[in-house]
Amino acid sequence: MRRSILILLALALTLAPAAALAQAPASRTVILSTTTSTQDSGLLDVLVPLFEKSTGYSVKTISVGTGQALALAARGEADVTLAHAHALEKKYVGEGKLHNRRLVMYNDFLLIGPESDPAKIRGEKSVVAALKKIADAKARFVSRGDKSGTHTLELALWKAAGVTPDAPWYIESGQGMGATLGIANDRQGYTVTDRATMLAFAKRVDLKPMVEGDKLLLNIYSVMEVNPANGPKVNAAGGKAFADFMLAAETQAVIKTFGVDKYGQALFVPIAGRGSDEGDVSPPLK
Question: How far apart are CA 222 and CA 239, in angstroms?
Answer without folding.
Answer: 14
